[in-house]
Design brief:
This protein is α/β, with parallel strands linked by helices and 193 residues long. It has six helices and seven strands, in the order βαβαββαββαβαα. Its cofactor is a divalent metal cation.
Length: 193
């Protein structure tokens, strides 16, 4: 059994399109209660906390916890809390390059063994006009997303390119996840439906 410790519809859709059919159990972890020395470290701390919260209630299965954060100038940017914050974030992102870091943690609930790693993808943002930024924020999409953007939704119009794993920008790196499964002694192909 594969368990996704996340409410992210993008993560779930990516796993399903890649042949898995995970059960979803949302961790309920309060992300604001955690801190770390860098955005990458914070994404890993949060991924572990989410996976551990879900795995603690299970006797079996591989539990996947993830957390994505946009890093710009060394600072972490998660989901904006308000439309005003999303507007300000896009004024900051416009024409810049950031790093989308996603912490991944996989726990074998039966043995308690866990493995974890961070995937990083460089994101080059375009230069949307103030009117385009306002329309994007008004759509509501940026409010539910790390860094206030999506690459597969309306935000894709404003991303000029990426360097690295496309799936990581959606919230989960399939190649990294395969490596983590292998570290625990599992072949991802054994879980294909």
């Amino acid at each position: 059994m594969i368990v996704l410790a996340s409410a992210s519809s993008a993560r779930l859709a990516l796993l399903r399109s890649a042949g898995l059919d995970p059960k979803v159990i949302v961790s309920g972890v309060d992300e604001e209660a955690y801190s770390a020395y860098s955005p990458a470290a914070l994404s890993l701390v949060l991924a572990k906390a989410k996976a551990e919260a879900v795995a603690s209630g299970l006797d079996e299965g591989l539990v996947i916890g993830c957390d994505s954060i946009l890093e710009l100038d060394g600072r972490p940017y998660g989901k904006p809390a308000t439309p005003e914050e999303a507007l300000e974030r896009w004024r900051l992102l416009r024409g810049r390059t950031g790093r989308l870091v996603t912490g991944h943690c996989v726990i074998d609930a039966a043995s308690g063994r866990q493995v974890a790693e961070v995937a990083t993808t460089v994101v080059h943002f375009g230069q949307p006009s103030p009117e385009e930024i306002a329309a994007y924020v008004e759509s509501g999409e940026p409010l539910d997303l790390a860094g206030a953007f999506s690459i597969e939704g309306r935000g894709g119009w404003f991303v000029e390119g990426i360097e690295g794993d496309h799936g990581n920008v959606l919230g989960i790196s399939l190649p990294l996840l395969r490596d983590l499964f292998a570290e625990l002694g599992y072949a991802v192909t054994a879980f294909w439906r």
